[in-house]
Amino acid sequence: MLELRGAGFGYSPQNWVFKDLSFSVPPGTVTAVLGPNGSGKTTLVRCAAGMLAVQEGAVRRSETAGYVPQARGSTFGYPALDMVVMGRARHIGVFRSPGSRDRAAALRAMDRVGIAALAGRLFPTLSGGEQQLVLIARAIAGGSRLLVLDEPSTGLDLKNQVRVLQLLRELVRTGMSLLVSTHHPDHALFLADSVVLMGAAGVVTGPAGPLLADAQLSALYGVRVSTLNYDDEGTPRRTVVTPFGADEG
Amino acid sequence: MLREAQPLTTGPPGGRGPGLRQVIGPCLLSGAVLAAVSAVAFGSGRYSVPLDHVVQILASRIVPFGPGLPAAEENVVLLVRLPRVLLALLVGGALAIGGAALQAVFRNPLVSPEVIGVSSGASFGGALALLLGLGPVALVGGSFGFGLLALGIVFLITSGRGGAHILMVVLGGIVTASFFSALVALVTYLADPFTTLPAIVFWLLGSVSTATWAKVLVALIPIAAGGVVLLALRWRINVLSLGDDDATALGLRPRPLRWAVLAAVALMVAGAVAVSGVISWVGLVIPHLARMWVGPDHRVLLPVSFLLGGAYLIAIDTIARTATAGEIPLGVLTALIGAPVFFVLLRRNRERIWDGA
Fold it and tell me: Of the candidates B6, B14, B357, which has its C-beta nearest A119's C-beta?
């Protein structure tokens, strides 16, 4: 459970990234954060995860959030398992090293994410999608039921995007709560119960269905956006397209 | 659904075994290298001592056995070479483990103990003591005090707004280092060219030739204190090496942790400079070499770096005192050997060095 009440954050006074923002992420639900580049999505998820402190209002978390940053490779070539074990850091004393219980928790998390076979591979040699999955496993290994993910599908190819989205859906089914920032409204349509739209005119929050509609999305991104219904093996879904306009001549 | 989420590429299953065995193997091996190098160092020199005599002399300190050996051999090994080997071990080990820790917290392969300004501060303190003719206690105390002062200045530079950034720490170190280098230049300019100047210049070149049991003790205290802190933090250093963002996300507070590592390294480096002057390149070359061998896990890398750094400096020191009739300054040899070795390593392992593959 995550709750923001009247939260505000700015990198300088009078220049708020967001102000008086309230929403909550109940257990077993997903809230997606959408907005154009530079709208403050990353700032918001970092505040929600406790990486940044809000200057106004309050952020309440029922437990420490597991934060999943964007995968950017790493300086040192640790094996994937060692990376996931580092998710246990908050449970391991300052002068101590992880023990067999921490390793077991890490292996369980990797199994749950479906990457147990990557345990011995060096993190920098993994593909972007695999690195993202390792980082998700690392957050799960920390034992938190609340995950905050910063653009988990950015930079991944289509197959890995599907893989990550299906994994996140599976995690929610087991009762975890997720706050996810994304550049893809269609990913929000697939995943989210609620959305936070960070536009130039201010931040709008509410249930995903009504807010992920043509007018709201077009206003948010400043470009024409249309939602389309389609049939996904019997499940009705919606996706988005950005019409380019008629060809000339 | 998780069935679909199979890895795109398969790797060796299971991964690595529990930490302990992984740590002990490389440590034993580098310990054996250290022992072999030391045995050669004890025996060689102007007065050479056969290997079996070396072993007997050292062992009979604990359990007396075997026939009596010439008193001269005992004196050479116990009074001349043992403190010298121990001092080279402490200094080389301190510089190497310090370099390995710094490279981790700055996530930068070009970082060495010189970068955070501590070496320059310590060399100014020592040079000042020599200029004023204050004797060996002041030499050690001055190096030590100014080494820590340099760290304090870096801390002040970075303690303001925005100072948390790693780049600020590196810049602060560079600023501090060049400031103290200027002061060292001033000291050498002021020094009497016939008496104190040569003493200062030779001290700055770096050497363990004046090793005594007292110096070993002086170096041992700060180096052991700093080393214990680094080894205790070995796994935390792994987490810190992912970067501040990841460390924060994993529930650590990276800033105090980084300062703890920096202070421990400063203590060790100041102790090393105080007894041996400025010996460069060890803190850069040895951690790279060790990382290529055992990978980046600091639970293994830190102890192995210490042992290999010690072995390396003992070997270099043995060459320095046996290659010619005189003594080649250590700092000159470490640079002459270190720079080309580093060049070859970089050429041959351009991508692999950093991955530890």
Answer: B14
